[in-house]
Amino acid sequence: MSQHEHAGQGGDIEKLWEMVKDIKFAMFTTRHRENGHLHSRPMTTQNRKHDEGDAVYFFMPSDSDPVHDLQSDAQVNLAYSDGDDTWVSVSGTAELVDDVAMKRQLWNKPTEAWMPEGPESPHVALVRVRISHADYWDVTSNKLVQLYTMAKTAITGHPPKNPGDTGHVRMH
Description:
Mean pLDDT: 81
Helix content: 25-40%
Number of helices: 5
Structural class: alpha+beta
Distance between the termini: 25 Å
Radius of gyration: 18 Å
Strand content: 35-45%
Number of strands: 8
Oligomer: single chain
């Protein structure tokens, strides 16, 4: 497995955005404000391109558990997977963004289905997660090669030599 470590923005953040741009949902993990347990829930990433830089945006009800949780502990994790060959784990700091213009810019029909009050509503929270760092795994071989590699590993007991690309992106 080839492994890369990147620092700062540039090709690294573009690689990250390229990997997650077509993945509709992230598992948004917060630390529960009362018991300290980690809670994950699927959330839709609102921005889909790297021109937003090191931030990922989500809409959620302003009185929801994740909003209350991140107000107690702003450290969150976002887990992305296409269910097949791409996995990305993003760690960052979440904050509420009180910017109606930004809400309007990111607003879309699927969001409206969940939150019919619209982007101007005080019941709709816009959450920005500033990416601190991310780890990714990107399997580049086709399914037949993957199956062969898994079978060979099971028979020989030796881990695969180069199943794909993995890396670490540090933003700050």
